[in-house]
Amino acid sequence: MTVDLRELSDKACIVGIGQTDYSKASGRSVQTLALQAARAAIADAGLKPHDIDAILPYILGPTADEIASQLGISDLRYSSIIKMGGATFVACLETAALLIHNGVARNVLVFCARNGRSGTRVTGRVNTIPGQSFRRDFESPYGFSVPGQWYAVLARRHMIEFGTTREDAGRFAVAMRKHANLNPAAMMRDVPMTMDDYMNSKPIFEPFHLLDCCLESDGAGAYIVSAAEQAKDMPQKPVFISGVAQAKPTGSDDLFNRPDFFEIGLTKAAPRAFAMAGMKPSDMDGAMIYDCFSYVALLEIEEAGFCARGEVGDFVKDGRIELNGAFPINPHGGLLSEAHIAGINHVIEGVRQLRRQAGARQMRKAARLAVTGWGDLGDGALAVLRS
Amino acid sequence: MASDNAKTQKPLPDRADLDNAAFWAATAEDRLQVKLCAACSRHHWPPRLGCPYCGSDRVAWSAVDPAGEVFSWTVIYRSQTPGFEAEVPYAVVLIALKSAPGVRMVGNLVNCALEGLRAGLPVEAVFTPAADNSVKLVNWQPTERS
């Protein structure tokens, strides 16, 4: 028996969002960061902490138990870790919608808190990635041990097969920086960046140069999901979860031996999410694309269906993805230039845009947005959100 | 767990891993093995205990011709692996094996200038002893100098 996911469409809404400041050194514990973001999201939703009856934490950081205890939640009915790496916070929208639609929970708190710059940096986080024995025996001995290095091999192949260029990735990175310069919360708000800066940045894992790589950040974000029926009486304009799906790529414990080399979770998740919403990629007013590296965002744009595979170089030309372009991407500046809060900041930005609370970076038209996630060895999720 | 080597600090494979030990026994004799499924006759990599294509548990190590071509690569200028700091820039190559379609293996490019890297470059395996001689790793060099 399969469930008709259309039935789940628009049944749950994001009703609250919260975040801390994003920085290189928060000076606070991850517990403090998590509680600040969670309290902000709960208040934004017009709820009290005891209204929260389910918590979905990140695989790294404070647990549901710790946060419930410190928020005075005495009856936590449900908690679980959705293990999708950077796709977690889009995938959690699916879990939250299922919990609510099935009556398991009424108000679901989802959060991420990290001292990702001053505390545990990327080399300390890779041990949650699947296929650890493969990494240990067949990759690390060759000096190949962090995600950016792995993804660089995907990017190089994309350049070989489709003629994708550094300038294509540069257009994405420069757009992210322009957006961040309009975002008072962005770590790079005061740091402009030109295409020359991009082209001249030093190589890190070629073809990735420094300015292809995301920030490492301290900070936290949180959101609350409640039933659509309840959301209409809550203080903020509800943001409907019209479609959402998560998927693992074929062979999700290894990046390099898929029969289709460019298949990622999004390849499968995106059509399911759009079908659930009854919409097409071309119905979107813009997108929040998980941009751990500029080239990874390019791969996602294709696999999410916004253009055909191999055509992303043309897609990002002529300012199309910039705030005033035909298809704005990441008006907050993304992981590249706002902060790396594991993509929960992409969900938060989607909500802000749909509520029209994004200030100087508000998209002219933002009624339907897609949010993507990319995790580990290409795990993927996509949500279609609407106001 | 990476076993640190006193000479280089480079991580080494866990030769005691019950599932992968046979691979290192073969490289010690300059032989390359991947997994082959007796049910669907397909090779696969990395080595699993069941076939990723058909799900059969009839998978076993099988010797393959240690030759292939460069499918993709990265040149690492900032290593985040212990012991590799002094070796940058170095190339990590993804090699498509000729005799085992669909198998792509990671290794280092050796005996070749970085400028010589290109897609389709024919390569052969070089069985390289680790600094402590405990194991032979599989690296790749051009079969014809171009």
**Main beta sheet of chain B, described?**
5 strands, antiparallel
- Catalogue the unreliable spans of chain A: none
Quickly count the domains of chain A.
Answer: 1
Could you give me the name of the CATH homologous superfamily of chain A? Answer: Thiolase/Chalcone synthase
* Helix percent band of chain A: 25-40%
Strand content of chain B: 35-45%
Rg calc of chain A: 19 Å
Largest sheet of chain A: 9 strands, mixed
What is the global morphology of chain A?
globular
If interface size is counted as residues with C-beta under 8 Å from the partner's C-beta, which chains form the largest one?
Answer: A-B, 37 and 44 residues
Structural class of chain B: mainly beta
Briefly note the structural class of the backbone of chain A.
Answer: alpha/beta
- CATH T-level fold name of chain A: Peroxisomal Thiolase, Chain A, domain 1
Question: Could you explain the architecture of this structure?
Answer:
The complex is a heterodimer of chains A (387) and B (146). With 387 residues, chain A is α/β, with parallel strands linked by helices. Chain A is 33% helix and 17% strand. Chain A has one domain: 3-Layer(aba) Sandwich (Peroxisomal Thiolase, Chain A, domain 1), CATH 3.40.47. Chain A has helices at residues 30-44, 64-71, 88-101, 132-138, 147-162, 166-180, 195-200, 228-231, 265-277, 294-303, 312-315, 334-337, 344-355, and strands at residues 12-19, 54-56, 78-79, 107-115, 203-206, 208-209, 218-227, 239-247, 286-288, 368-375, 379-386. In chain A, the strands form 2 sheets. In chain A, strands 3-2-4-7-1-8-11-10-9 form a 9-stranded mixed sheet. Chain A has a two-stranded antiparallel ribbon with strand order 5-6. In chain A, helix 1 crosses helix 2 and helix 6 (166-180) crosses helix 10 (294-303). Chain B has 1 helix and 8 strands, in the order H-E-E-E-E-E-E-E-E. In chain B, the strands form 2 sheets. In chain B, strands 6-5-4-7-8 form a 5-stranded antiparallel sheet, with no helix packed on it. In chain B, strand 5 (90-97) and strand 6 form a beta hairpin. Mean pLDDT of chain B is 93; it is low at 1-6. The chains are: A alpha/beta (387), B mainly beta (146). Chain A binds chain B through residues 122-123, 131, 133-134, 136-146, 149, 152-154, 156-157, 160, 202-208, 250-251, 253-254, 256-257, 259, and chain B through 1-2, 10-14, 17, 19-20, 23, 44-46, 52, 71-81, 83-84, 87, 89-90, 92, 94, 102-108, 119, 130, 137, 139.
